[in-house]
């Protein structure tokens, strides 16, 4: 893990869908929460398209997924969960989205922001990344620079009393080029428990659990701990 200075206590996790934070970073989130950091989730869409059940409606699915996300976050020790209510499957890195994320960065004043790596188009020969994930990553990075720290960007936020804020560290999830690894030995079981809360999304559970454990072991190769989550990492300010 990067040598994170003490005192970086506030963390904002910005993700496209309910369950993205758990898949990408629940072990790290749980570890930070145990260390006393205040972790807040900002979930951009309602995840209201993630079902092929003909009896399911988008409205009902949104309610289910909100509840699942809150339950998973509670397992990990996350302090607050906020939803922006964008439609699942059509997220775009618009100025409106950037302004909304900037507003939440200025409101919650995080030292650390976590978001998806927007440069991940695919991985290997079996995985094409969801466009919502890329949009969430793009909008969040743009909200950090030049959004949250630049006074005259989004002057309407100044009118709301939201002053500029400097984010110090960024952790990008799902990166093809991870360069920082967090030891999740003590929290991988919590990650599994949190993922289990996403009941509407997880079908064959035992297979998925095995995949998650194998991936965490793969990610730790070359580290001096057995299981890890990997991130593309930035330290913007000391
Ligand atoms: Zn997702």
Question: What report would you give on this structure?
Answer:
The chain has 238 residues and is an alpha/beta fold. Helix content is 40%, strand content 20%. The strands form two sheets. Strands 3-2-1-4-7-9-8 form a seven-stranded mixed sheet, with helices on both faces. The protein has a two-stranded antiparallel sheet with strand order 5-6. α1 links the parallel β1 and β2. α1 packs parallel to α2, α1 crosses α6 and α2 packs antiparallel against α6. The mean pLDDT is 95. It binds zinc ion. Zinc ion binds next to loops.
Q: What is the helix/strand order?
A: EHEHEHEEEHHEEHHE
Q: How many β-strand runs?
A: 9
Helix content: 25-40%
Distance between the termini: 16 Å
Q: Number of helix segments?
A: 7
Would you tell me the overall average pLDDT? 95
Total count of domains: 1
Quickly give the CATH architecture.
3-Layer(aba) Sandwich
User: What is the approximate shape?
Assistant: globular
State which percent range the strand residues make up.
Answer: 15-25%
Name every ligand kind in the structure.
zinc ion
CATH topology: Rossmann fold
What's the main sheet like? 7 strands, mixed
Q: Biggest sheet: strands side by side, in what order?
A: 3-2-1-4-7-9-8
Q: Over the alpha carbons, how many angstroms does the gyration radius reach?
A: 17 Å
CATH superfamily: LmbE-like
Task: Show unreliable segments.
Answer: none
